[in-house]
Amino acid sequence: SQTIHQWPATLVQPVGSPLSLECTVEGTSNPNLYWYRQAAGRGLQLLFYSVGIGQISSEVPQNLSASRPQDRQFILSSKKLLLSDSGFYLCAWSFGQGNGYTFGSGTRLTVV
Amino acid sequence: GESVGLHLPTLSVQEGDNSIINCAYSNSASDYFIWYKQESGKGPQFIIDIRSNMDKRQGQRVTVLLNKTVKHLSLQIAATQPGDSAVYFCAGIGSARQLTFGSGTQLTVLP
Predict the structure, then answer these.
(1) Which of B34, B98, B103 sits opposite A42 (nearest CB)?
(2) Residues 87 to 106 of A: which have CB under 8 A from any B CB?
């Protein structure tokens, strides 16, 4: 069966510090991968998605970037965090397009 | 653009009653819908899905109804339990083939 791992679960970082959140999927090949952010309200905002190694699509211009160095690894990064980057970050995967997404357990990021 | 939304941000029901959570979507080309449940501090969890060639699908204590004419879907939870308290999202896949999420409904089950 497929599993998705996301870490760390919580993170407190000072403004201006770098960020690296990692997500890995097991039990499948060539998944579509997604990074979402969930701010103080309840909505999920799509940040990045990837359909293959090295292929990244950005949905919202921002202070963040994403990379996919391996088939089942998706990394969310920032060179300098802003207060507004605080939120709950969720990684997800799907079989191709037009199918449901399975989410990781999320990372609670607090920028102080 | 495409949008998927929910009718009510909050819903309170008595334990044992049935819950109905509603959702509307704008894109008539949307052909796949999913309901997710998100408990506090956790990632969204798949509950049930439905494709546009169906108008009803049932799971364990949950039923999803799809009305393509008015572009509306609903999630019905039978005999609501305290463990059902969570935020519920509807999500749809349309022409962009990406999942678009609604804003969520907070369901509170009262004792």
Answers:
(1) B103
(2) 90, 92, 94, 97-106
Interface of chain B toward chain A, CB-CB under 8 angstroms: 9, 31-32, 34, 36, 38, 41-46, 49, 87, 89, 91, 93, 97-99, 101-104, 106
pLDDT digits (tens, 9 = 90+) for B21-56: 999 988 888 889 999 999 999 999 999 999 999 999
Q: Tell me how long chain A is.
A: 112
Which tokens in the block code for residue A98?
A: 């037009």
Tokens standing for residue A51: 């359909």
How far is the C-alpha of B21 from the C-alpha of B84, rounded, in Å?
Answer: 12
Closest by Cα among B39, B46, B82 to A38? B39
Pairing relation of β-strands B86-93 and B99-101? Answer: antiparallel
Question: How many angstroms separate the CA atoms of A36 and A18, rounded?
Answer: 18
What token pair was written down for A73? 């690894």
- The conformational region for residue A104 under phi > 0 = left, psi -120 to 50 = alpha, else beta, is beta
Q: What are the structure tokens assigned to A37, written together?
A: 């952010």
